[in-house]
Amino acid sequence: MAPADRRSAAREDLARTGGRDMLVEVVEYDPSWSASFEAERRRLAPLLAGVEIHHIGSTAVPGMAAKPIVDLMALVDSYEEPIARLVVDGGYQYPRAFNAALVKRRFLLYPRSSMRTHHMHLVDDPVELARYLRFRDRLRADPALAGEYVKLKQALAARYRHDRAAYTEAKSEFVSRHA
Q: What is the spatial distance between Cα 50 and Cα 46, in angstroms, rounded to a whole number?
């Protein structure tokens, strides 16, 4: 699906729930992000029994500026049961229209669009998980690459402050090139 369609789907989900989205803001590294990931991983482990949960994204890179939202990723056999558990028992929101526009993954947010602390990305393809982990690990190992990515994210956050989907789409070429 085209980026414009994903942005439209994100707006549709927000309108349906009567919510508003958080502004896109890149902040300095917070050492508590690692502990926040670990606490959420432990909280979700019983809901995703036997599934390994990974810390991905910029909050998983020590010292890197990021949006203050911890990204988690899990490899699942299918989406239906994990999504239901995360929504019903975990308090996550599942934006349906936005997810209909995704390929090879599903996206959930916690606790709500207007005040997110965590994103959960579910993938059913080990190659997709490996791609995200490879990008994270490259950023951890290469300070110059991490610095280049931070500059890009800061510029995009200023440009797309009110459009999360456009911000994410604008980063995608850089991520694809370095994953």
A: 8
